[in-house]
Specification:
CATH topology of the largest domain: Outer Surface Protein A, domain 3
Number of helices: 2
Number of domains: 2
CATH architecture of the largest domain: Alpha-Beta Complex
Distance between the termini: 57 Å
CATH class of the largest domain: Alpha Beta
Helix content: 10-25%
Number of strands: 13
Shape: elongated
Structural class: alpha+beta
Strand content: 35-45%
Order of helices and strands: EEEEEEHEEEEEEHE
Length: 181
């Protein structure tokens, strides 16, 4: 039995969980989410809890059990609390600003500004004084993917630490040529 898969998922009364075949629909105060689960697992919605069970003990069912439970738990958490990811821009002249409602313009040391379109379902807040970009959504996977895509525009370099990094990320710094003596 999967250690993660066997845990029940509690959900508050404000969340509504329905299942149609392999699809699980979760609706709450922060929005709606839908996820298609593998055919090797089934979901039982009880009184205030959700239980993810395997259909059989095949290798595919065992490998999908913990994943399916984590996906459903993230959906419940997303529609109640929402997920947030914060990025920090570090470097002289490096900055971000909003252009319209779903475009961010980055100046990251290249010869041109970079326009980044934020996908639907993600809210963005840019703080020019602190040089941070905050992404918020009820879909954990979408927030992580957008944050990783923004970070890839100019990953942090190890000598001066310039670039786009997660706020909670630690960059190991190198000494450089002067330290080789």
């Amino acid at each position: 039995m999967s250690r993660i898969g066997k845990l029940e998922i509690p959900f508050p009364g404000t969340v509504k969980v329905t299942q149609k075949g392999a699809e699980v629909h979760v609706e709450g105060p922060a929005g709606k989410l839908t996820q298609t689960l593998p055919e090797t697992v089934k979901v039982k919605v009880g009184n205030g809890t959700i239980e993810v069970q395997r259909v059989d003990d095949s290798r595919a069912a065992r490998s999908a059990h913990g994943l399916a439970r984590s996906l459903v738990a993230n959906m419940v958490q997303g529609v109640t609390e929402r997920f947030t990811r914060q990025l920090t821009i570090q470097g002289v002249g490096y900055r971000a600003e909003m252009k319209g409602t779903n475009w961010i313009q980055f100046t990251l040391g290249y010869s041109h500004p970079i326009l980044f379109e934020v996908p639907e379902g993600v809210e963005v807040a840019v703080d020019p004084k602190a040089n941070t970009v905050t992404l918020t959504s009820n879909d954990k996977q979408l927030v992580g993917a957008v944050a990783a895509e923004i970070r890839s525009l100019r990953p942090p370099e190890p000598y001066k630490g310039k670039g786009v990094r997660y706020t909670d990320e630690y960059i190991r710094r190198k000494e450089g040529k002067a330290g080789a003596k």
